[in-house]
Amino acid sequence: MRRVSVIGLGYVGLTFSACxxxxxxxxxxxxxxxxxxxxxxxxxxxxxxxxxEPLLRRAISSGFLKVTGDFRESVLGSDVTFICVGTxxxxxxxxxxxxxxxxxxxxxxxxxxxxxxxxxxxxxxVPPGTTDGLVRASLESTSGKRVGEDMGLCFNPExxxxxxxVKGLMSPDRIVVGAIDDRSGKLLLxxxxxxxxxxxxxxxLTSLVNAELIKYANNAFLAxxxxxxxxxxxxxxxxxxxxxxxxxxxxxxxSRICDAxxxxxxxxxxxxxxxxxxxxxxYAEGLGVDLKLIKASIEVNEEQVDYAVELAxxxxxDLRGKLIAVLGLAFKPGTDDVR
Length: 339
Hints:
CATH architecture of the largest domain: 3-Layer(aba) Sandwich
Low-confidence stretches: none
Strand order of the largest sheet: 3-2-1-4-5-6-7-8
CATH superfamily of the largest domain: NAD(P)-binding Rossmann-like Domain
CATH class of the largest domain: Alpha Beta
Shape: globular
Strand content: 5-15%
Number of domains: 2
Mean pLDDT: 95
Order of helices and strands: EHEHHEHEHEHEHEHEHHHH
Largest sheet: 8 strands, mixed
């Protein structure tokens, strides 16, 4: 039986843990939040996600998922550790890696007492160079062991889409694995081969830094498609008979473009697109690179709410004193995430 530990039981970690357990993996789900652990242990997910509750209940009742706050027990009891903690934005747009650093320190301290080889996999979104830099240094300094000798290291980005996260994990478009060496990459691919019963989705095995960049580029491009649609929505709003929905449908029928994320609306939000776009822009600026397209995408997005207010004023005039209903507070359908 495969034995894994998952550090962090938010959207990414909880969904991943429940799916692994459902496929017969022994999973230690680790989180420092006591209330969150209590809810999950009772089979009550602290998030809304389609399909997650029955999956979680099965995982708990079968014993395949153990929820705990004990890092040492979890790492020593598993062969692979996945780090799925948050990487929020700081006010200046840079990425706060304190949760990643803390998780690595705790994992490293546990590995100090482990004789067997252990694979550590980062799934949290981190700036390029972090896995081979901060993560590696923290693991080695706290464990007294060497990456590439006593333990393996991979970066395996998640492409979770809230509202369809379970389906996305069970049937992904692709899996990207950045590995420090051949042994690490092979071990992680073998794990996924077991998870998908030898019916692996398309795999890209690459370097750590390429895998880290792929995650940022992926989110930047999807956000840019939304901003593109919103940009054209303003032009369509000035033209009699123009409908941005039809225009985007027309270009989305081109196989080179596809229609996903070409919907005009209030703009993109949530926990990932805003922080990841700011994060990669800030990181690039530190290297003297100006990511103009991404900055323009952010600018269009920030202006879109003002444009929505302008549309409302065109329809009903001065909004002062008006009663306004807002139907839906989350950033997209199928989720209760209002971040």
